[in-house]
Design a protein that fits this description.
The complex is a heterotetramer, with 2 copies of chain A (about 350 residues) and 2 copies of chain B (about 600 residues). With about 350 residues, chain A is an alpha/beta fold. Chain A has 12 helices and 12 strands. The N terminus of chain A is likely disordered. With about 600 residues, chain B is α/β, with parallel strands linked by helices. In chain B, helix 1 packs across helix 5, helix 9 packs parallel to helix 10 and helix 16 packs across helix 19. In chain B, about 65% of the residues are buried. Classes of the chains: A alpha/beta (about 350), B alpha/beta (about 600). Chains in contact: A-B, A-C, A-D, B-C, B-D, C-D. At the C-D interface, strand 9, helix 7, helix 8, helix 9 and helix 10 of C face strand 2, helix 3, helix 5, helix 11 and helix 12 of D. Strand 2 of chain A pairs parallel with strand 19 of chain B, so a sheet runs across the interface. The structure holds thiamine diphosphate (2 copies), iron/sulfur cluster (SF4) (2 copies) and magnesium ion (2 copies). One magnesium ion (MG) binds next to helix 4 and strand 5 of chain D.
């Protein structure tokens, strides 16, 4: 099933975005995931978000590891470059690609297995470097593609399809990322596109590493009773802490925000995320508050969603490094070769 | 060396690491170099930071023999802990210099060499107030002594000192004092010069002294690499140090400080390789330097690069394996693991520079080859090349050089074509076109390590899969005509040959001269790349007897020759040196003598 | 198959994965097996979970030919998406069964086969209310149809059903109904049986049907493995599933639930290998199952195990490379990477079981060898062996078997000796003694991947280093007498031979029979282990012409034979099958025909 | 320099511990580290702690990765089994060894490079599994053995010897471990043996994963001005939050503890750690409090030390798994081989 097999038939009545493309233009190949898989909904939300942001499709680079989730880059943005890497190693590939071309929109898609087990080290270090990318964990608590083993995100007490109970504590990517200094941390649910799309848009526009942990149920191996990553469980324990609304640069922010509950956060390109507190205890500008709430809610069995933490002030990798503004791939050879004269000068030190 | 000789000697200086002897030893070597004498400096250091034995060996050779000599004419025994072994290493008729501030143990002596005592510590203690300075100056002082013993030009040394300490007047003064003290003491108390000594010559013009890691880093700058990702590991670390240094020097905007390069210290070698693949995929020239354990860790990604055809450059500065092995000793034992790194039917293009000069150009070749062949290219140097001080011909950069990016279609190229398919072999050379992400919608494609067909689409179809892997195998054949051919010294008169590789070169050349003097003419081929091309085959076919000299236990080069060229085993005789020290000419000569003796006996 | 025949046919069932066809297909295969007919089931499934094409192939062969047959007598075309290809695959004179509920596209037909339509969906829709059940029962219904077409004993099927659904009366009823519906429809509307059909036989007594991963897991239980660490990867995952299952069954205290085993799902393959080394070092028998990418990731640790001499067992269930490749297709392409996994002069002992039965005993042998040789041992099976249903002789366990722990000194042994040195070769077989941490102060030693001498102490000394690596090389020679020798079928009459390995076995045996019938007598040697022993060498020497049949692109087994035994390349002719499907006898025969024709033409 | 080269000469006047050994018996080979290296002090503290606990030397297993720090197992406990593994992979080896023999005292020694870069993934998962071991990070902010590159623990703004400034945020192993659910998290300073020895003893006796992050200056590459991991900087910014005192099972706890400031924590073998709050804001039983304080102190440039978090209630790996109490290595083959009869029975399912 390749992304090439699907003809792009343009429906004449489909709305177009600012650059004249329809949502169809942001789609990809036909999905080969199980019917009902949460990951397909995330794909749908990504298509919507990219469409709404009016970014030319070829300015995205979509990268992934290995897993059902990591297959999805084939199912959106057909006209973007894709890189389906090895298991758990997408962060390093994204880092390298970004180092060479700082001007693309990088979307990394990973799974809870891909990021929290084999990929944990790279995940942590991509955060530490504040790579300018949107990083999605399509989190279903299991290894879908290898048929349902518990992942490191499986909750203690969650039951496998065949009845086994997971006894190890879960790794929460959001808490981990916040502790490690991530600058944009959110949680979404594949079953709630309305909430997810603005988060995706904000994440794409965020300067630096934007993490969205998306609860994305595996209908085949982890959607039964006793699972804490099922549709039913997630819906029931869904707890929206901070709602986020994305407002592009040109639009004016018209609504009035009540002091203390709603706040606009300016992004580096001039767009804004308007945050609205649902859970009054939660302060998405304060690491510790975010952590405390996440931990307390997790202990209470709740799935806290929304934009959990944001800090627009931190420089991303290239800013830290002071790399030239021109993407390195666009430098001419003459700009990087010091020439023979310099070479001769350099050699005077070696005599 | 029992007869007086000029500009042919080896000095070995035994010391303790962390005592600052490196700069003193380097100065001694460089002063010989500046006198016009070909010279090489080899450092045998421990895998720790301070307090363990370390040795520096300087060979001067008017004839230009710059392999490890294997015989020590003058031992400078500054380390009491190793005095015992150091003593045994001196060639009969040679000399040993020691610090006579403290008495030597009476038992430790030899009748067939001359022992020279100089109270170095005492002299320094008398002249320098500060303890740290005393330790440092003791090293400088023995350089002064040696200068007198070997008749090294004091002016050259002083010039070197004034260059090194141009901005540190007090240090300059101390150093000069120490040199003078040593020199003066020797002139006053010792028979100088020794029967072997240095004399001004003219053999080093248009040469530099450089290590292979520095020149590799420099080569990457000139080749136009913009992204370097790495994880520190001995002995490859200084490749990136060099790259960084020269980039800072030449690629930084003087006003804004903005950098035309990006260097990432990765969290490990897996990540470093991933970064290189990502950057290369994105269109940059990207590389990573590493050593054995790093290659093992990069295996999965190297296979990915092979199958997805991403041009990546890896420098493997080989050290002594297996496993962690002896990280500060040299070997050529990663040939097999690099050739076949990764599971499945995977094979990699390798380059084998023989010295720092070749490292510089190998960097350029590696990037050009990687781009042309769209595959990872691994440059295999080793600790001996990478970290030791070699004399090389001056480096030059062709001002007309333009990177050969191979079949890389940029936006303007894509505009001209109808359709782009990533893995479609249009030209029949098994090499397909690639594009740069972000350039143009027409250039978008999907890169995957899983089964893909020639259009880049996912496949599990047996036939489509075969098309791709069979093409990759054909690309291997294409590679044969792109990689550098071997360096060959051939005369029809000889029917014995030596094949060798990389840092064996100097030892082999010297051995061939020795054998020639004995009346055994030997032809020589040095392999510069895998895959092997037709010339390699021809050379082998042209000889009755061929020795394959390499620095590993398992005859890895020979194995590849047998496999790839279907050479019968008996045509190739292994000469294997793998104790972690650089091979010597003597070892090669002895091995051939022994083999010939076997032939006679049989 | 144009003449009526009994118990010699191949059925292929095309379906969509996730529709529950696996159990129906398994039932069909097992019913043939219970009728006493040798049978094999091969599953060709996609690397996804639901909705893509999947095929199950059942070959029945009274003669016991259980390789993939390469010809389809009856195609059960249940997947509209692949109907087109499925149609082309049927052998001339064969049959295609399809669901005639919906009309076929008129163009898709063939004159040389018989097309049979049965309205399976319609029948099921009429009889079952629930949608999911309808989908499932359609599969059971075609089994009923096939039972009629092939004259399969209905009682056998019913017995199987009642065993499978002993505790689920409603499902049992539904299944029986579906079988009857299919069977009844066929009997009523179709010509039954077909010219090829099944008849009660006696060839399966004392045999079981099992896959190699399950038997590998079971073998580890019997070999006394107590620690298993792993990271899931297709097609090796079910090795640990099997181990776990049998451990839960046999090694759990019925009262306390306490386990006499420890299974760790590691965070990745690097960690899995580290855990195995840690556990083996601590004295347990420990193992990890993996596949290609895992081997690449384990490289560094495998080299560590080699150099520090830790007995570890790895199962590599090979899949189709390079890189991620086709994870649900089979290959034997990790031979090279496993033999030399890791940088430096590293080499590993390999075992090559040919079927599930051998997997069971290979587990035992691997642990015994690892313990005796104190080195990692890698068992190379493949997806075909590991995940397909093979008929094998019953497994037996010698009640007198005791694990051969090799030179493992426990507390009581240490009491008896003066001093213990980890790497001292006392017996001259290059194998030294080891101890168990915590047993006894006398047994304490330090394990390190860095240079060590024969007492286990850290060294950077050239001579001490050589003592260790040269001994390791000698251990390789010792290994030759410990590993299982090849399986040989030899007759002096023949001077042509075939060498093959692992899952090629059935195809090769069948090919040899075919060639024999044509008058070409061929001897056969199946390699069971690396290093190769003297018998391997002798076999090669005894033949003028030898074909090496293996399932990879780069002739990896042949390469190892050439290298290790110094066999001239021209003595071995490659027969390479590597499209991801199991090799067939026909492929082997054709390759040999072609080669012989070349010989004639030349 | 091998640990075998040093003869054990027993001084007749040296005090002996409960099992009749002197502190000399707990020593190892001669160190090959730089004179003054912090790691040597940690070695000394370990020797002292092991001696004071009166554990037979051969009941320890000491494991490490690669680095100057990872060399130290050769310098203590000469009569214990040692395993100097590969770089960053000690956690998995320790996990494996522990799985085979649950009865030994496992001491893992690592560096900040070894654990926080290449070893991050394994470090995280050893915590998650709550492996029963003492895990030390000898943290100097640099890669000592490869000559002074910044490690991931280097503080933002810390200066390298040659003047370069580190611009990336540090990974704090303690905060990371607490977030991930570690059950014993402490920080020490190689320059403060009095504080370190009781922490080491408590860590060895703790059930489950005990982490001690030990600031251990690298005199050669990171002890200059501008470094935030130098002796001088650490001494100046040293902030003891929770003092810990280890009391073996047999001793009675005699001192009186003021409510709220001092608290005894019982360990599973009956011994006790008595904690004393120095920093009154710090609650070592409360994750969030610990995290908040660590983060605030870090921002203020302080090096918070002491026993930062403890939870004795969590089961370690074998308890979670319900492994037999007998170390697996001591099971007889007859206890693990199900025998031929069972094999025949099992096969009935495969017919
Ligand atoms: C090196 C390596 N090890 C193991 C695998 C097998 N594998 C494929 S996907 C996967 C887990 C995927 O889990 P997750 O990331 O959660 O994705 P999901 O399928 O649940 O979306 C594993 C273990 C692999 N492809 N590569
Ligand atoms: C796979 C691998 N990569 C790189 C190295 C080189 N190396 C040795 S020690 C080290 C860093 C050690 O740093 P740390 O753990 O902080 O120890 P320290 O020396 O500072 O105590 C590195 C990168 C190695 N040995 N193995
Ligand atoms: S197995 Fe689970 S994760 Fe994978 S595609 Fe199916 S539902 Fe989605
Ligand atoms: S280099 Fe630094 S860490 Fe290594 S031994 Fe020396 S002082 Fe210690
Ligand atoms: Mg998952
Ligand atoms: Mg460090």
């Amino acid at each position: 099933m390749s992304f090439m097999s699907k003809p792009t038939v343009r429906h004449p009545k489909l709305p177009v975005n600012d650059i004249g493309l329809t949502v169809r233009d942001y789609e990809g190949g036909m999905s080969t995931l199980c019917a009902g898989c949460g990951h397909d909904s995330v794909t749908g939300a990504l298509v919507q978000a990219a469409f709404e942001l009016s970014i030319p499709t070829h300015r995205f680079a979509k990268l992934s590891g290995i897993g059902c989730s990591s297959k999805t880059p084939a199912y959106f943005l057909r006209d973007s470059h894709g890189f389906n890497s090895t298991h758990g190693r997408m962060p390093s590939v994204a880092t390298g690609a970004n180092s060479a071309n700082r001007d693309l929109y990088y979307i990394g898609v990973s799974g809870d297995g891909d990021s929290l087990s084999i990929g944990m080290g790279q995940f942590v270090h991509a955060i530490r470097r504040n790579i300018n990318m949107l990083y999605l964990i399509e989190n279903n608590g299991v290894y879908g593609l290898t048929k349902g083993q518990f992942s490191a995100a499986a909750d203690k007490g969650s039951k496998a399809k065949k009845g086994e109970t997971n006894l190890q504590p879960p790794i929460d990517p959001c808490q981990t990322a916040i502790t490690l200094g991530a600058t944009f941390v959110a949680r979404g649910f594949s079953g709630d596109k309305d909430q997810l799309v603005p988060l995706l848009k904000a994440g794409m526009k965020h300067r630096g590493f934007g993490l969205i942990d998306i609860i994305s149920p595996c209908v085949t191996f982890n959607d039964h009773e006793g699972s804490t990553k099922s549709y039913a469980y997630t819906r029931e324990h869904f707890n929206l802490a901070i709602a986020a609304n994305f407002v592009p640069p040109v639009e004016e922010i018209t609504a009035k925000y009540e002091e203390g509950t709603s706040m606009p956060v300016k992004l580096h390109d001039g767009s804004t995320i308007v945050l609205r507190k649902i859970d009054q205890d939660f302060d998405p500008m304060d690491r510790i508050s975010a952590l405390r709430n996440l931990q307390e809610n997790a202990e209470a069995g709740e799935v806290t969603t929304g934009l959990l933490y944001i800090d627009e002030s931190q420089p991303e990798m290239h800013e830290v490094d002071n790399t030239t503004k021109t993407p390195l791939v666009d430098l001419d050879y003459s700009q990087v070769c010091p020439g023979n004269d310099t070479l001769q000068k350099i050699q005077s030190r070696y005599r | 060396m029992n007869e007086p000789s000029v500009n042919e000697f080896t000095i070995k200086i035994a010391n303790v690491n962390g005592t600052g002897s490196a700069s003193a030893n380097g100065m001694l070597m460089k002063s010989l170099f500046r006198m016009g004498i070909p010279v090489v400096g080899k450092n045998y250091f421990p895998s720790n930071i301070q307090g363990l034995p370390t040795w520096y060996e300087i060979r001067a050779s008017e004839k230009g023999y710059l392999a490890r000599s294997g015989r020590i004419d003058l031992m400078v025994a500054m380390n009491a802990e190793t005095y015992n072994i150091d003593l045994t290493e001196v060639a009969p008729g040679g000399y040993l210099l020691y610090d006579s501030t403290w008495p030597r143990h009476s038992m430790l002596t030899r009748d067939d060499i001359t022992i020279i005592g100089v109270p170095l510590a005492k002299i320094c203690n008398e002249n320098f107030p500060n303890a740290r300075i005393r330790v440092l100056m003791k090293n400088v002082a023995y350089v002064g002594v040696i200068a007198a013993l070997l008749d090294v030009d004091l002016e050259v040394i002083k010039q070197l000192l004034s260059e090194a300490f141009a901005k540190k007047a007090d240090l300059l003064e101390a150093n000069q004092l120490a040199i003078n003290m040593g020199y003066g003491y020797a002139k006053a108390h010792l028979d100088t010069p020794l029967p072997f000594s240095a004399r001004i010559s003219d053999k080093t013009a248009e040469h530099i002294i450089i290590d292979g890691n520095t020149s590799s880093g420099l080569g990457c700058v000139y080749a136009g690499a913009t992204v370097g990702a790495w994880y520190p590991i001995t002995p490859s670390t200084s490749v990136m140090d060099g790259f960084k240094h020269f980039c800072e020097l030449t690629r930084k905007d003087p006003e804004t400080g903005e950098k035309n390069f990006c260097i990432i210290q990765a969290e490990d070698e897996l990540a470093a390789m991933g970064m290189v693949l990502g950057a290369a995929w994105a269109g940059a020239r990207a590389f990573t330097p590493t050593s054995g354990p790093g290659i093992s860790l990069m295996s999965e990604f190297l296979g990915y690069g092979y199958f997805t055809e991403i041009p990546a450059v890896v420098f493997n500065v080989q050290r002594c394996g297996p496993s962690t092995g002896m990280p500060t000793r040299t070997q050529q034992s990663d040939i097999t693991s690099c050739a076949f790194a990764s599971h499945g039917d995977t094979r990699h293009v390798l380059l084998f520079p023989a010295n720092p000069e070749e490292c510089f150009y190998a960097a350029r070749d590696a990037f050009d080859l990687a781009d042309r062949l769209q595959t990872p290219v691994i440059v295999l140097s080793d600790l001996d090349i990478g970290m030791n001080d070699w004399m090389c011909a001056d480096l030059h950069w062709d001002k007309n050089y333009q990177p050969d990016r191979g079949k890389l279609l940029r936006a303007e190229d894509l505009e001209k074509i109808e359709e782009f398919h990533r893995y479609l072999d249009i030209d029949g050379d098994a090499i397909t076109s690639r594009t740069v992400p972000g350039d143009h919608p027409k250039g978008a494609y999907f890169t995957r390590g899983s089964g893909h067909n020639m259009y880049g689409a996912y496949t599990e179809d047996a036939g489509e899969y075969l098309q791709v892997v069979d093409r990759l195998r054909r690309k291997w054949d294409t590679a044969k005509s792109y990689v550098p051919g071997p360096a060959i010294n051939y005369s029809e008169k000889n029917n014995t040959g030596i094949i060798s590789i990389g840092s064996c070169n100097h030892a082999v050349r010297e051995a061939i001269d020795t054998l020639g003097e004995e009346g055994l003419g030997v032809n020589y081929m040095r392999i510069k790349a895998l895959p092997f091309n037709g010339q390699v085959q021809e050379f082998i076919e042209a000889h009755d007897k061929i020795y394959v000299v390499e620095q590993n236990r398992d005859a890895q080069l020979k194995s590849l020759l047998c496999l790839e060229l279907k050479v019968p085993d008996e045509q190739l005789t292994e000469v294997l040196h793998y104790n972690g020290l650089p091979v010597t000419a003597g070892f090669v000569v002895d091995a051939i003598h022994q083999d010939l003796a076997k032939g006679v006996a049989a």
